Structures are given as structure tokens and as C-alpha cells.
Amino acid sequence: MIYPLLRRALFVLEAEKAHGFGLSALSFLHAGGLSGLLADRRVHDPVEVMGLSFPNKVGLAAGLDKDGAHIDALAAMGFGHIEVGTVTPRPQPGNPRPRLFRLPEAQAIINRMGFNNQGVDALLERVKRAEFVRQGGVLGINIGKNADTPIEKAAEDYVLCLQKVYAVASYVAINISSPNTKNLRDLQQDAALDTLLSRLKAEQRVLAEQQGRYVPLALKIAPDLDEAQITAIADAVRRHRMDGVIAANTTLSRVGVEKLPHGDEAGGLSGQPEFRLATTTLGKLAHALQGETPLIGVGGIMKGEDARAKIAAGARLVQLYTGFIYHGPKLVREVAASLQNNAPNNAHGAAS
User: Fold this and answer.
1) Would you give the distance in Å from CA 117 to the centre of its chain?
2) Residues 269-288: pLDDT tens digits?
3) For residue 106, what is the DSSP state?
4) Cα 80 to Cα 8, 9, 37, 88, distances in angstroms
5) CA distances, 217 to each of 143, 166, 183, 315 (Å)
6) pLDDT tens-digit series, residues 238-253
7) Using only C-alpha atoms, what is the Rg of the chain?
8) Annotated active-site positions, please?
9) Which burial class, exposed, middle or buried, applies to 207 when counting CB atoms under 10 A from its CB (0-12, 13-18, 19+)?
10) Domains of the chain
């Protein structure tokens, strides 16, 4: 396996440059039929969640491939599903650089990217060209609002993105939890969340009737929620019959990185230090939902044992991001093998 050598070279570069170069290297190897140098065959462990058939329980979280430019190369790393985005209606540059920071001592990353992407139309063109999609791979598309869209008009951006991606997505993830777009997390509050979910579910019904195909909607939430907020979100998810919840996005907490270089940078923290908080939030949400809505566990998975903890907390699927950066494709296989034939053993994770 050559990933440790590749990572060593990439970590010499500034983080965002390394991110772009690393993805380009994956696509170059894939185009040359050399993905096998990095990854073994995908673990076969099929599971049905949100009415979709996933070939295994391990997915790629949104944020790594915002513009869907590397779908096929990433799918060859052994993932059971790929989630691209976050994408917005119009292209936007995101926040000023530098905005991505490694904390290798903690196996963590802090980012304040700010939904930098080339817009939903550019994403669609790439998705349509992806062999993974044409072959029936499970592709999630994560949608958000443009930074200059007033928060009171945010639903319009989400509805527009949903309309555009519906025909090509396996499921659509609603990102209301990034800490890097001003006021975005306000959409997790009661009235705002009700308005947004009501609009999206109504549009989902229209699109399903028009296209003869039901595309599930999953809500992506923050880990920085108190008991009352988790209960309110669970009530809204139940009330609007959401198809899934992804828990959780990056955290504003700095527990575990306070004294490390870059530990005080603004943005969302991901990786090992987030594991306990994200898993606790997942478990509380699972308890509140009592198995009525399937959950996807994200945040701090660095080994198979971490993924099993997510399943035990109530998740049906898991997703990787920061762990993939630090450990590469071997982590995908380790986690998938660790979860193979491992069904949830509690009531909270039993529903699909």
C-alpha cells in the first residue's frame, strides 16, 4: 500500500493545496487503472437504508469532493456510497485563505471553507459523466445556501438545489449545520427548521410525482446541541417524516486541541477529538427518535472500533472524512470489514 508515502508527501504541502493535489492524484491513478495500488476490493456487506441498497455500511462524507470532480476515483477506494457537496445554487469562492488546517498530533482538521464550490449546474455536469452513477452507485448530494442569500430566504436556495439535483441523486442531504456560513445554524431552530423542512418535503412530493422516483431527504445536524435542541430536532424530523439524519457535522468545541498549533483557528473541528461529542449527540438523537428514522453516524472515526460505537449508538451507516485523510483507503476496508454483518443490536437503530 502506497498511501503512507503519498500522505507523507502531501503533508509537506499547505493543507488546501495538498487536498486538491491528493484528489487529482487519485483521479490520475484511477484513469490509468491503478486504483488497486491504493485500495483492495470493496467489502461486500449489503444493507438497506432509506429505501436504498448500499453495498456496505461505509460512506464518504460531504466536503471532500465538493464539486463532484473525483467521484469515480473515490468510489474505487472501497466506499459503499459517496456524498458530494456541499453545493449551492450559484458558484462562490468561500472564505479567504488560509482556511484549512491540519492538527496531526490529534488526528484532526479545522476548516472554515465556507461552501466554496462551482455551483449546482457545474456539479450536475460532472455527476452525469460519472461511471459510478451510471452503474447505479449510491450518490448523496449535499445542498446548502449561498453565503449572500439572506437567512430568511434560505429555503429558496435549498428548494432550487433540490429541484436541480433530484434526477441524479440517490439521496439529498440538507446541510444546515456548517459553522462556516454566517447564521446557517440558525436554521436548526424550531420555526426556521419547520419552515425549511415543510418546503423541502412539499417539493419532494411534487418531484417524486413528476419523475416517478422517490429520492430520500436526510438532514445533517451539528454536534453542538443541548438536550432541548436535540429533542426539538427529533420532533421536527418525525413531524415532517424525514428519511434520514446525518449526525454530525464539525464542532465548534476545541476540547483536546487547545494547546496544539492551529488549535485556536476559527472554523469547524473534525477528527479524533470530535468522536465522543458526535457519538453522544448521535445516541441522544437515536433515543429521541426511537428507531423511527435511520441515522448516519459521522465524526472522529479512526478505526473499526469507532465505527462499531456509532452503530451501537444507533447509526445504520457511517461516513468518513478526516480519518480517510489520515489513514487512507485501508481505513475504509478496516471499517467496512469491522461492520460486516453487524446489524444494530438496539431498538434505536432497528428501523430502515
Assistant:
1) 15
2) 999 999 999 999 999 999 99
3) G
4) 27, 28, 19, 25
5) 11, 10, 22, 16
6) 999 999 999 999 999 9
7) 18
8) 178
9) middle
10) 40-340 (3.20.20.70)
